[in-house]
Amino acid sequence: GKNPFKLIDDAYRLEWNMAWGGDGMIRMATYNYLKDKGFKPIDAGQMTAYFHGDYAMITPAARRIANRIFFTPSFKLAMGHLQANMIKSSVQIMRDAANLKKPSAKTKMLAKGALILYASQQAKDYMFKQWGFKKEASGFKYYKTVETDEGEKEIVIYNTDPGNVILRQVHRWTKWQDDPDRLGAIMNKAHWDLHPLGSLVYELAKNTDGENPIWNPFDKTGKWNDGHIIAKDILHHSIRKIVAMERMVEDYTATKGPKASYEALRNDMGKLHTYFISATSLAYLRQTKDQRKMRQLKNWERLYKKYFFIDQPKTDEEYQRRIDTFFRETNNILNEMFEHE
After folding, report:
1. Three-state SS string across 239-273, please?
2. 109 pairs with which residues across the strands?
3. Cα–Cα distance between 35 and 329 in angstroms, integer?
4. Whole-prediction pTM value?
5. Are the CB atoms for 188 and 173 separated by under 8 Å?
6. Which of 64, 80, 136, 155 has the fewest CB atoms below 10 angstroms from its CB?
7. Greater confidence, 275 or 63?
8. Is 214 within 8 Å of 204 (Cβ atoms)?
9. Strand 151-159's sheet: what is its strand order?
10. Tens digit of pLDDT for each residue in 146-155?
11. Where are the alpha helices (DSSP H) in 59-161?
């Protein structure tokens, strides 16, 4: 038969050539557009690199350090830097107008880019609203309730295009400081940005893959059977994490997640819309809001008991502060559960 590794290599090279070939065509179109707008060739080239990811601005030493900690950070850094300067240029345009000063061509182009970016995010919000989705985070995260074989679920669309890099980071790093398990909160939010080895070590130490244990803590090590032995579960999880080829591990139960989510999306919206959405977005199923809040409430109670036991308050003031925090957060969760959307 055919060498499976050769097939994987061929598929990888095909995708690589398509991705970078398309990137080159887009860059060339941008370059020619800027030249038509009066930019000199060297300035047009620099602006093109800037708009599509100026990796040269990141020094090799900084890139090596970042790659050891994060997962493919160069693109996010480049896009984040670009979008931050788009915002800065928009402010500069208003300052120049107030001072009756003519802005530079670069400033105008970056400010124009900010307007286009904003318009595209608003158009995305409108499009998903027309499709029956509710907005969870403007520009990149939407959800709707659908019927599945397991009952009512919410299907979530998480859009990851280059235009919402800053939006995604701002949304991700807000409202985490009050979590009793702060390290866990940080790791959960940075899960997809960290180098796979770093997050793998944390997951194995905590015996958690998101919300589920990697292995059953009541299993006994020894014989290799039934897929429930700790050593096998650790090896299984580690291979999946490092190689990141989930679909090749046939007995990995979480592969049912992506399949089920796209099946639910296809049943609800049809093949054409599903294909259009999946080209630039991730889709996954989750519990409904009430189900999530009940789970959150139980988890909050569990964490409170855990930390009260392992780190008992030393003063009456500390004891009272913990009690107040517990009831405040409990009330917040309950209010969110019963509020009318």
Report:
1. HHHHHCCHHHCCCCHHHHHHHHHHHHHHHHHCHHH
2. none
3. 56
4. 0.59
5. no
6. 64
7. 275
8. yes
9. 134-137, 141-148, 151-159, 281-286
10. 888 888 889 9
11. 60-69, 73-98, 105-130
| Res 120 pLDDT > 70 | yes
Report CA torsion sign: 197, 198, 200, 205.
Answer: positive
Q: Token pair of 41, please?
A: 């060739």
Cα end-to-end span (Å), the chain: 57
The token duo for 182 is 């702060």
What are 61's two structure tokens? 């030493």
Structure tokens given for 7: 């097939």
Q: What pLDDT digit, counting tens, does each position of 47-101 carry?
A: 888 787 777 777 777 777 766 666 667 777 888 888 888 899 999 999 999 998 9
CA distance 30 to 116: 14
For residue 229, the 8-state DSSP code is -
| Nearest of 144, 147, 167 to residue 157 by alpha carbon | 144
Beta strands 151-159 and 141-148 are: antiparallel
**Strand partners for 23:** none
Distance CA 31, CA 52 (A): 11
Q: In 3D, which of 91, 89, 62 has the Cα closest to residue 78?
A: 62
Q: How many CB atoms lie within 10 A of CB 233?
A: 18
**Distance (Å, whole) CA 210 – CA 295:** 14
Confidence at residue 328, expressed as pLDDT on a 0 to 100 scale: 79
Integer Cα distance of 82 and 54 in angstroms: 9
Residue type, 142: Y
Six-digit token string for 144: 């709707």
**Cross-strand partners of 284:** 156
Helix, strand, coil proportions of the chain in percent (round to 5)?
A: 65, 10, 25
For the chain, what percent of residues have pLDDT higher than 90? 11
Are 117 and 108 within 8 A, CB to CB? no
* Higher local confidence (pLDDT), 249 or 312: 312
Contact 153, 287 (CB under 8 A): yes
Dist CA 108 CA 119 (whole Å): 16
| CA distance linking residue 102 with residue 91, whole number of Å | 14
Please report, as a single letter, which amino acid is at residue 211.
E
How many whole angstroms separate alpha carbon 199 and alpha carbon 211? 14
DSSP class of residue 102 equals: P
